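Support reply, case 0932

Customer input (verbatim):
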Amino acid sequence: MFILFGKKLLDSKKVRYALKIVFGIGISNANKICNALNIPATITVGDLTEIQKLSVSTYIKQNLIVESKLKQKIHENIETLILINSIKGFRHRSKLPVRGQRTHSNAKTCKRIFH
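Our regenerated output:
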């Protein structure tokens, strides 16, 4: 079993798809990682050698922002939007949908009712 940033990657999954468990790594980043480290598309996590596991973790640490650092960065960006009094910041502060979604019939769970 390969543990990467506190996430357990299943031995039976292919490496490209198992890396998606880590927050901040999607399929395109997983493909970039595997191509940069010359990991074949058919290899599973259980077939990785210790050197390959170490190279995957060091590559991610050096080139990508993942897990808690990414979550912290997202939170800081939202706080910045709130501080500069932008429309998106106001919508975040009011707990309304930010990206133009409909609120008349949808978003009833996140919408505050103003009286």
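We compared this against your earlier run and they match. Two observations from our side: DSSP finds five helices and two strands in the chain. Residues 7 and 21 are 7 Å apart (CA to CA). Please reopen the case if you see a mismatch on your end.
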